[in-house]
Specification:
- With 116 residues, the chain is mostly beta strands.
- Helices cover 14% and strands 35% of the residues.
- The protein has helices at 23-31, 38-44; strands at residues 5-6, 19-21, 48-52, 62-67, 70-77, 80-86, 94-98, 104-108.
- The strands form two sheets. Strands 1-2-3-4-5-6 form a six-stranded antiparallel beta sheet.
- The relative contact order is 0.11.
């Protein structure tokens, strides 16, 4: 069984109530269900999952997935979906983003220094 780690004590007050599942815990929990494809197992060993309680007015908790050096956060707000991508730990200058299969839209990671 996967156990939650309360990481709020080591965040300097940021992210109070944060819960974390490490890559090892997630891979271990999934392994209990049966064999895992090697490609999936490779990704799972590099994945980190964090969950923060929702803020007043939110419909869901804020879930952050760290993978491939990028953090993707998502939560349901009362008025719609909030999606956050953090690429500060990469040298990416551009994110190709697609919503509901309507085609990719390029978005610079720093609008003050657009991608070439």
């Amino acid at each position: 069984m996967t156990t939650w780690i309360d990481a709020s004590g080591n965040t300097g007050g940021i992210g109070d109530g944060q819960r974390t599942v490490s890559a090892e815990q997630l891979a271990g929990a999934l392994a209990l269900l049966g064999s895992i494809d090697p490609v999936c197992a490779d990704v799972l060993t590099r994945l980190n999952l964090r969950v923060y309680p929702g803020e007043p007015g939110d419909r869901t908790a804020y879930v952050v997935l760290d993978v491939h050096g990028v953090s993707i956060g998502v939560k349901r707000r009362a008025d719609g979906l909030y999606l956050h991508a953090d690429t500060t730990e990469t040298d990416d200058r551009l994110i190709a983003f697609e919503i509901n299969g309507y085609g990719e839209t390029d978005h610079p990671t720093n609008p003050y220094h657009p991608a070439p």
